[in-house]
Design brief:
Blueprint (H helix, E strand, L loop, with lengths): L2 H9 L6 H13 L4 H13 L5 H11 L3 H9 L34 H4 L7 H36 L18 H10 L7 H17 L15 H8 L6 H9 L3 H14 L4 H12 L1
Helix pairs in contact: 1-7, 2-3, 3-4, 11-12, 12-13
Length: about 280
């Protein structure tokens, strides 16, 4: 694609045809990081309702540094009529020139015949060269970005043997032992914002908790039946009766059944039968 045609696409992006869309899609494959080309592809695929329109718009939004420009391109009304375009003229020098017939000169207005050109070809060539420079800079930026990502992935891998750990014995953890253990560990160097974030977290921890509390002794398991005995005056249920029977406390189970008779009079016969069984 020559610079003049590309410049014409940029100037008349709202009147492109299917042939123009195919050329722009091919150009996008050659320059995938060009914002201008992706914006043009997104616009022409939308105007022609091509299957690639949704994907083209998403990709254009990803690579856009200023989405306000993309919005302006996508929302500009389409031209009512196709804009006439200049075609390349080829002259066949093998045929002899035709002698021109004399024509009577007539006075015509030059302004009415010659169309007003928006820009000169030299300006379009300059713009095309600027676009190529931008594309080259984008290629270099993406290459540097990939190198940085590879370095970050490499530095994020676990370092074998770089950190020395010491087992902590059960019991009290003395402050002097902790400081000595911290001094014996090797320092891991972090870079950039990650290092600042780690430093801020450590400083905040030192300010809020300068010392480490002693380890609490493991408490012995408590007998849940003692709590049940303390609360049996407040909790009355058939489940509690079953627990008391499993513990062999028949007298307390009988007392609990009597309370259940007062609490649930509609089940009086059922509870009375259980009391009779326990008294046997």
């Amino acid at each position: 694609m020559n610079p003049q045609k590309f410049y014409w696409f940029v100037q008349n992006y709202n009147s492109l045809l299917l042939e123009d869309a195919n050329q722009l899609i091919e150009l996008e494959g050659q320059f995938p990081y060009s914002q201008v080309v992706r914006h043009l592809v997104a616009r022409v695929t939308q105007d022609l309702n091509l299957p690639e329109k949704d994907n083209a718009l998403r990709q254009s939004a990803i690579y856009a540094t200023d989405r306000a420009v993309l919005k302006s391109i996508m929302t500009t009304p389409r031209a009512a009529q196709p804009i006439p375009r200049t075609e390349d003229v080829f002259v066949d020098l093998s045929t002899p020139p035709i002698e021109a017939q004399p024509i009577r000169a007539t006075a015509i207005e030059v302004e009415a015949v010659l169309p007003v050109l928006p820009d000169t070809p030299s300006q379009s060539v300059d713009i095309y060269e600027e676009v190529e420079q931008d594309l080259a800079q984008l290629h270099n930026s993406m290459h540097r970005f990939e190198q940085v990502v590879e370095q970050l992935e490499h530095s994020a891998r676990p370092l074998s043997g770089s950190i020395t750990t010491h087992p902590i014995e059960k019991g009290e953890l003395k402050e002097a032992d902790l400081i000595e253990q911290i001094k014996s560990t090797k320092e891991i160097k972090l870079e950039g914002a990650k290092q600042n974030e780690q430093t801020e977290i450590i400083d905040h921890f030192i300010k809020t908790q300068p010392t480490i509390n002693k380890l609490r002794p493991v408490s012995e398991p408590t007998d849940l039946t003692e709590k049940i005995e303390l609360q049996e005056t407040h909790i009355v249920s058939e489940t509690l009766v079953e627990i008391l029977l499993k513990q062999g406390k028949k007298e307390k189970a009988v007392e609990m059944l009597k309370k259940l008779i007062w609490k649930f009079p509609q089940k009086k016969a059922y509870f009375a039968a259980q009391i009779e069984e326990l008294k046997k």
